[in-house]
Design goal:
It is a single chain. The protein has 59 residues and is an all-beta fold. The chain is built from no helices and five strands. Strands 2-1-5 form a three-stranded antiparallel beta sheet, with no helix packed on it. 0% of the residues lie in helices and 36% in strands. The chain has one domain. It is globular, with a radius of gyration of 13 Å. The relative contact order is 0.28. It binds zinc ion. Zinc ion (ZN) binds next to loops. It comes from Halorussus caseinilyticus. This is Small CPxCG-related zinc finger protein.
Length: 59
């Protein structure tokens, strides 16, 4: 199978809903391990939701 470019994981700020690319924290044989940013660049919120989970968060 051809090598596929990896898409960085995306996270949504819980407070202002700005989308951030995850930070690479580890390089593994299977790719990179991503983690949410330390804080939102827009509002300094530190809680993020992985973007794939975001559509389920309609309370
Ligand atoms: Zn924010």
């Amino acid at each position: 199978m051809a090598h596929q470019p990896e898409h960085p994981r995306l996270y949504v700020c819980n407070a202002c809903q700005t989308v951030h690319a995850g930070t690479v924290v580890e390089h593994t044989d299977s790719g990179h391990h991503y983690e949410a940013p330390d804080g939102c660049g827009a509002c300094r919120e530190s809680e993020f939701t992985p973007i794939e989970d975001w559509p389920h968060r309609h309370d």
